[in-house]
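Cross-check.
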Amino acid sequence: MTSDPARPFGRVLTAMVTPLADDGSIDLAGAQELAAHLVDRGGHDGLVIAGTTGESPTLSDAEQRAVLEAVLDAVGDRATVVAGVGTNDTAHSIDKARDAERLGAHGLMVVTPYYNKPPQAGLLRHFTAVADSTDLPVMLYDIPPRTVVPIEVETLVRAAEHPRIVAVKDAKGDLGAVAWTLARTDLAYYSGEDMLNLPLLALGAVGVVSVVGHLVGPRLAELIAAVESGDLVKARAVNESLLPVYTGVFRTQGVILVKAALRELGLPSGPVRPPLVDATPEQVATLRADLAAGGVAL
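Predicted model, tokenized:
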């Protein structure tokens, strides 16, 4: 667990997949095994549980609680465990936040409410209400490709006034907005879009919440360290070496190909739940080639 206020959730976090059994049920032992692998051998100091890559849209609240509890039991003494609790219903999000706090989560990730397209005033009210409901630190998740509505800079500035809203996972792709938010707030930024890890770190992000981190956690730590030391030549070289991995994992929905890669590596993953579909043999063959080009052998 991190004690650095500048990076309240750690440095290298992965939005962890939720391992499933062949029949589609939750594999809690597999979740513990994967979490331990990522933390003990994969270079991670934090994990996000029940985010989108964890297939939260198709996990029941009870299943999300069970996975969170299992992961906390496995690695909660040596990694920051952040619970994804955001929904498009403020009352439901508050209930999930309180559940996560009772289970011992170290922090909360709250995504922009999706589908109902709230105005900025609604976003601020939603985030503030969730942050008011527990004593846990909150990371906002700004991802308009999934939620349609971006969190505008002015909204982030006002949200940052809340003592428990301390960070943003950014997958907005608007580097100018990030620069202005960093200039006007003390929010800790985490890159939430792997292809933009380097530019976001160069702007002042303190870490990553990654999908490819399942496969290249130590190299992401190397990238962050290079930027922080001012060695941009090395940072660019590390980033360039990771480009085939970034591209390969996101040729379709990231969880589909990450689970395929984990299966190939003999790590817990299992199938995805509908409406997602598992990778085809052709997709796995392409993934093997992409990852090999990025220095990851399946």
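The mean pLDDT is 97. Residues 157 and 174 are 16 Å apart (CA to CA). Passed to J.P. for a second look.
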